[in-house]
């Protein structure tokens, strides 16, 4: 579904990503972890058309996409959320999702809009202004907007940030259900490492812009390089 080869991103003298090579198979649930500044969000920017990579290849279903616009990525079935939710504050929840349907060339059928809103558990808020929602609800709205574009690849950037442990687990269950229901390939960046490790099929670790490890959760948590660079005793006790 998604593959990157020797992906690099440089800002002046700063290498945000350096020769990252990674594949995500169709239907897979990949988690990406790493300390702040590791290049995780930059990676998402590079594989969704926000940034033009300095070097390397980005392929969606085998077709090269580096250098294409975010709109082209969307039309190819790539949708994403952001660390800070990007919603239209002066529009209702319903109108935010309706706009996303239109942007994704899927039409604006009211029943489909309501279906997506209900699926992320914000049906009671459909007529509320998005700007008046608490951050956790804005994150749910952003997931609904991403789903509205009819994605095949869903990129989630810290959708559990600021939530309690119980709420984080609820988000993980929601993502798993949505993956199965909509037949999605999912890549999830998250700092809630324990929950992520229990949820995903595979984990990739970024550190100083490089791919430090990539494998099954049990393998990654036992990797001395990962423990030293990031996890410490957090998930090994």
Automatic annotation (TrEMBL):
InterPro entries: AAA+_ATPase, ABC_AA/LPS_Transport, ABC_transporter-like_ATP-bd, BCA_ABC_TP_C, P-loop_NTPase. Residues 2-233 form the ABC transporter domain. GO terms for cellular component: plasma membrane. Transmembrane segments: none annotated. The keyword Glycosyltransferase does not apply. One of its GO terms (molecular function) is ATP hydrolysis activity. Keywords: ATP-binding, Cell membrane, Membrane, Nucleotide-binding, Transport. This is ABC transporter ATP-binding protein. It comes from Noviherbaspirillum saxi.
């Amino acid at each position: 579904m998604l593959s990157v080869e020797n992906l690099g991103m440089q800002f002046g003298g700063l290498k945000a990503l350096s020769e990252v090579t990674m594949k995500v198979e169709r239907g897979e649930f990949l988690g990406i972890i790493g300390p702040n500044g590791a290049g995780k969000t930059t990676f998402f920017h590079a594989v969704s058309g926000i940034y033009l990579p300095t070097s390397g290849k980005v392929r969606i279903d085998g077709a090269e996409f580096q250098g294409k616009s975010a709109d082209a990525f969307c039309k190819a079935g790539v949708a994403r959320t952001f660390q800070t939710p990007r919603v239209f504050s002066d529009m209702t929840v319903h109108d935010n999702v309706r706009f996303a349907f239109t942007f994704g060339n899927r039409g604006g059928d009211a029943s489909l809009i309501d279906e997506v809103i209900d699926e992320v558990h914000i049906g009671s808020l459909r007529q509320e202004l998005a700007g008046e929602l608490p951050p956790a609800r804005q994150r749910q709205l952003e997931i609904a907007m991403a789903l509205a574009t009819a994605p095949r690849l869903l990129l989630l950037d810290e959708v559990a940030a600021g939530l309690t442990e119980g709420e984080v687990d609820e988000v993980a269950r929601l993502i798993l259900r949505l993956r199965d229901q909509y037949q999605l390939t999912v890549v999830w960046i998250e700092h809630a490492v324990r929950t992520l490790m229990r949820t995903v099929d595979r984990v990739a670790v970024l550190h100083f812009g490089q791919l430090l490890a990539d494998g099954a959760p049990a393998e990654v948590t036992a990797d001395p390089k990962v423990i030293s660079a990031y996890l410490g005793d957090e998930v090994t006790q």
